[in-house]
Amino acid sequence: MSEKPKHHVSDLAVFGGNPYFDAPLHVGRPYIPDREKVLKRINEAMDGRRLTNNGPLVQEFERRIADYIPVRNCIATCNGTVALELAIRALDLSGNVVIPSFTFIATAHALQWLGSRPLFCDIDRNSHTLDPAAAERRIDSETTGIIGVHTWGRTCDTKKLTRLAARHEIGLLFDASHAFGCSHGGILTGCFGAAEVFSFHATKFLQSFEGGAVVTNDDDLADRIRLMRDFGFSGTDHVVSIGTNGKMTEISAAMGLTSFEAMEDTIDSNEKNYLLYREGLETIRGIRLNTYPPKEKNNYQFVTALIEDVFPLPRDDLMNILHRENIKVRRYFYPGCHRSEPYVSMPEYAGLSLPETDYVSGRILVFPTGPETTTESIHKIIELLEFLSAHGRDVERRIESTELAQA
Ligand SMILES: *Cc1c(COP(=O)(O)O)cnc(C)c1O
After folding, report:
1. Which listed CATH number (3.30.1490.20, 3.40.50.720, 3.90.1150.10, 1.10.1200.10) goes with 9-29+262-329+368-406?
2. What is the pLDDT of residues 205-246, one digit of tens each?
3. How far is the CA of 162 from the centre of ligand 1 (A)?
């Protein structure tokens, strides 16, 4: 066993020691709920030769999601990105659309893919969600909508954004990819704005291999999206509009349903993990864990922290040290969409200054969690962070001298 505590700086794997963990601990490691149940459902689908095209499992999945929220319509899709594209197109967000730069690149790409233009906007430093005042300043005469992102399952300021969108008579969509099962004012996500979009990608806590959904209380919008999802077919050989192929397969729905049934247990494990991190990180100066609003529901699928300037190691050095110890922390969403291609090279974004996005994306780390992450491994991660907090200056000096020697 190499899993020994670190007593000296030279015990760290970056300086030649053995990694603290034998096997890598990943962020977003897919969780398989009940394998037998998944396989049973898949076998039934294969026996009945219903593999896709709005089959019984997809319909059941949509019903369960819609009933849970509750919301009038759920349209399941092949992934979250296509769900975003369907919603953007059905809502005719065809001009400029205000979005946070601090989001997964798919939020921006979905717009760009459809020929709309993302207007990157800054976030609130505490909630990591769209800053409504900044969003208002970003709205111009070509703006057709706003897409808010419920980052880490913390909902946007839906009240202010709803008022803002109404005042400017523009559309409002939410990318709720992180936020299934999360509430705002006691109401679960899925009911805010004109529509909300979920992702059920394998790395999300509720997963269907690949998958997503648009949910909405607007029946006409739902009808348009259903048509678009299936090439615009309204009958067997009757095409009424342009469409794409956004359908979810029965295999995905089999996993999605089983994952949905395990959801409360998954959330309990995630919350337990989050609380272990919280307790451990409380005494470490300069590692600021994300908080969740009390009294609101969350799925706790993300444990994120800002590595602040008082911590003795800069974020990227800390990340590299942890990676070598087999703790595969991630820096979502560094460096922000506006600093990623193709946007960073486009003249219209030159000189765009988003200081809060830079601050957060420059300091964020996402830690491993999920139902298979053990209490022991979280304790060990905390122990290592305590060690690095105490010996960070020595570590940093040593890194610098190694870099000098290599230069
Ligand atoms: C995962 C995710 C998406 C994309 O969903 P896919 O199902 O992977 O296409 C979009 N936005 C955010 C914020 C996400 O986290």
Report:
1. 3.90.1150.10
2. 999 999 999 999 999 999 999 999 999 999 889 999 999 999
3. 22
